[in-house]
Amino acid sequence: MQQTETQPIRTPDEAFALLRAAKLLTLTSSGTGVPSIVEAVVGGPIKGSWWAHRDGKTIYALATALDASPEVLTSTIVAGRVTFVHRGLWAPLYRTVTDGQWRSWARAILPMSAIDLLDTIERERTLRLQSPTVQAKKDRDALKRAGLVLADQEHTESGRHESVLRSWRTWEPPPIVQAEARRMSSDEAQRRLMAAGATMFGSRLPKKKG
Length: 210
Hints:
Distance between the termini: 31 Å
Helix content: 40-55%
Mean pLDDT: 88
CATH architecture of the largest domain: Orthogonal Bundle
Strand order of the largest sheet: 1-3-2
Number of strands: 6
CATH topology of the largest domain: Arc Repressor Mutant, subunit A
Strand content: 15-25%
CATH class of the largest domain: Mainly Alpha
Number of helices: 9
């Protein structure tokens, strides 16, 4: 997917318009061609943390507005980056993340330690990583890149950022979305996500058996 040039955005309405057009929007640049809020606000790539950029408050405000919208799901399906998913892609996303064959394929390419972490998340449904080890961070990032979990960060009372990993079973889109997903083949769902720029499939679609 090639990113098109746009004028710098400043308002939530402009951010929503960009998301509706692209269907996927990352917070920071992913290098995949999917547009990012940071580059859409600044007008191009930046060096260092966006928090320290002069437009950092604007970036934060727009990201917060998208995250709070009922027509947006926040996930990590583009290169493990924070990704805002427009409702228009919810059906193919739901069809995919609930598909046993895709989950088996995605799980099979994970390291064993990441599989163990995934099993814990599926059992607990929600897992908060408090002061994670280096290995736990690597496993968390592997699950985020694979798109096998819903990943988020929460601010604790102590001011720290805490990683929160949730099973996709905790996501219940509206019945109309679930009905659309049931009418969709797994191949169609995955191709729609890939066309929008999702990278949770690696470089190819899973091969069918037989």
